[in-house]
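This is your field. Pick holes in the following sequence-structure pair:
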Amino acid sequence: MVAVPFPKQSTPGARPGEGEGRRVNAWIDKDGDKDVVRRSPGLVQVLQTDKTGIRGALNVGGAWVLVYTGSVVRITGSTVTTLTGSIPGDDGVTIARNNKATGGVSTPDVVAVRSSGGAYVITTTAVSSYPDADLPATVNSVEFLGGYFHFTIPDGRLFASELNSTDVNALSVTTAESRPDGLRRAIATGSLLYAMGESTIEPYQNVGTQPYPMQRATTVIPVGVLATMAACGNEEAWNNPLFFVASDYTVRSLSGYETARISTPDVERFVQASDRAQIRMVAHVWRGVGFVILSSDKGSWEFDTTRGAWAERESVGSDRWRGGPTWFDNDRWLVADRLTGDVLTFSGTNFTENGSPLPVLLESGPTKDFPARIAVPSLFLDFTMSSADVHLSWSHNGGQTWAAGVDRSLATADRWPVRVNRLGLSTHHGIRIRITTDTDQDLSFIGANIPIPDKRPVA
């Protein structure tokens, strides 16, 4: 028997025949010493908002603030309140809250900033322009750390608010000046604030000085961020590094003062082909594994932080994965639906996406362990028993064309493993196997094998 080489991560290659296989809407779980391919979790509705164009979201002490195109809502329990006022445009929005308290009761300020410029304050009832004129109107991101709001300005300035306040002292400012590359994003984790420019990242720590409370570390990281919304990992309950799309079109992790390149050539080609203004990165945890999802107008890729592997993500009716901003609340991860505006959560029992099918595709690399023009007698596939149906197909020309294939049910207990006979003649490209399903049933895949055929060439 020859093992069919299904990839550890999706590697489609630049052209048919180059890649080592694909994995779409599926992840690899470790079961002892065995890898088990499982389908990605479904998305089920928590509540409806009747809004569209999600741009940013934040959990504010159990109340969720969501910014949409043309409106801002505050959700408490099952009550959706549309606030007075809105944030112009349809660009991405960063949102932060502070630790302000009044009379011993938490009354945090909430601030939102457009990636194309402009700051706003969001109360429990209304949205209004930022109240302090000492903050430049060109501000392009906001983050909270150590009691202060931190704002980036494209010209390289970094402002801090007063302690647990929206007031800004005109002198509470520094300039990220190791390089003249301006600033695109502020993002924080642990005790570090990262001021991210086009070609450098400058880390800062809170030292409590006045009027500006932060001090830059001696280290400057010599790579920048590609776009304001091209970073994630500052979400509450995210116990992993930061991740960002770098200005050299790589994707990197950021921990302490070190970055590590995690992208593959396929992911980097994807980034280069993307409209940077549409790049988004979000994070969530599923069954103890951290996942980072990178989306743009060209599609979506998902990075498994535990196994260091990439997979592709797709959603029916969309050019990318339908999930938008994510946040953690009440022991679960939530996600704003880009297609409907609904709030969703991840599910391991309902394998649809807000009622739409969740398609899975597994594609092998080439099996080349026998000469050309040999009849391939059979294919055996090892699935766990399920009520799912799968479609099986194969290619002898590197994936340029595929056989019509056959359907198989995984519920037939007396026909295991799943078998397909007479797969045609081998070629120098080897044979590739493709498995697809859009059933709403769970399934897991362990591997596939082809018997070593009679090596007498067919006349």
Summary: Residues 265-273 form the longest helix (9 residues). The chain has a mean pLDDT of 94. Residues 56 and 67 are 5 Å apart (CA to CA).
